[in-house]
Amino acid sequence: MQSYEAALNRFKEAEHKIHSLSYSTSMLFWDASTGAPKSGADARSQAIGVLSGFQYQLLVNEQMNEDLNTLMANLDALEEIDRVLVKDIKKEYDKLTKIPMDDFQKYNMLISKSSMVWEDAKAKADFALFKPYLTEVIDYLLKFAEYRGYEGHPYNLYIGDYEDGMSVDQLNVFFDELRARIVPLLKKIALKNKHIDTDFLKKHYSKELQDKVSRELLGWMGFDLDKGQLKESVHPFTMGVDIDDVRLTTHYYEEDMASALFSTAHEGGHAIYEQNFDRKLQGTALAQGTSNGFHESQSRIFENNFCKSEAFLSYFLPKLKEVFPEQLETVTFDKFNEAINLVEPSLIRIEADELTYSLHIMLRYEIELGLIDGSIKVENLPDVWNQKVKDYLGITPPDDSKGVLQDVHWSEGLFGYFPTYALGSAYAAQLAHYMSKEIDVEGCLKNGNFKPLTKWLNQKVHQYGALKKPNELIEMITGERLNSKYYCDYLESKYTKLYGL
């Protein structure tokens, strides 16, 4: 019987190698998304396939199996970080050992190529280009579900990959609760028929000046650009490859100033989380957000609860007038606040207002369920999508680019990911509620002072990385589990005041 110390040393060595390979794979994805030549897509796909194969071999082998079993039998003897890491890797090992290596490699090559094809299909507004790739992605997900085994709906597997402990049954209840309070609020706003002028946001705002403001905003929020990078991509995203190397992107529209600024605030929230894990977690699989829902809570709390608040906008508008004097010369604060927080059904999820955003998530959730259980066929997807958008939002996409092809997620096999966006908004509201009991949040934001707010999040959320699980973390911070009441209360309070309901 081997000693657990020797097993732990071998385990740590393999885990560090896996982390390094993951870093390399991430760099290839980053390069592909931020300007690498499309002609190199096949070569990158092959490289990613080889790297993912090496990762698989490091994790799935007889020695690792023996070491994990030894460590699982000696968990009480391990320090907290090692104990949590061993349990997490054992869970991942059990998941991967049920998937043949050949399938695992081919799948990683597929999603690398699929995301490039999606980008072309979106540019050409042609779902037919993407259809065979999405069909193959779903076939793999169904095959993997059978390999892994599941309880209830096969979709439970994929929710669990992003939000530990979440299920279809729980999500159905969650969305029902949001729908019961948000839909009536939307109806009241619609009946109010209040005209809000947004023309000034559609004037010409140069990309260069938007980039300057975006970088200044990140600095205020607490993101360290000396240990990170901001670039432009088709779809804004954040990639934390290491505590000292966190990258984010935004997308600039010269006739829509608000889009890039609040995309930057959103991705900045993600990026600040990635920069502030405890150094003890650096180089391990615990140097990441505890769940997708919690990660999304950090982007949402900065984007919506902070940056779109009445308090911060009163500070932000004069700063923006210095950069864009001609475009904003006659804009009053009330006009600016109303325009930024406009409630209006829109086609694009990432540009949706706070109230309609959850409807965008619900329709994607329903479609994902249907694609996984077979009740929705890939060839019918554009029609199904357009009908749901019409039913929920009362509008119809003019083409696939602004409809079913607008999100990158499905091209990368990220089923089960979308619901975590709605969960993130609920976590954000709950955290903001409890933060306000300790800090004058409104007073800080009126002065553009994010430091106390970011420090609170650093101490309460960020430092723990994945060391604390979602349910444990939210209860440790707020004394209760996730409660959608705070999200609904926040929305009702904000929009009742804004629209004079």
TrEMBL record:
GO molecular function, one term: carboxypeptidase activity
Classification via Gene3D superfamilies: 1.10.1370.30
Keyword field contains Metal-binding: yes
Domain of life: Bacteria
Xref: InterPro entries: Peptidase_M32_Taq (IPR001333)
Reactions the enzyme catalyzes: Release of a C-terminal amino acid with broad specificity, except for -Pro
Its job: Broad specificity carboxypetidase that releases amino acids sequentially from the C-terminus, including neutral, aromatic, polar and basic residues.
Official protein name in the record: Metal-dependent carboxypeptidase
Organism field: Fusibacter bizertensis
Lineage start: Bacteria, Bacillati, Bacillota, Clostridia, Eubacteriales
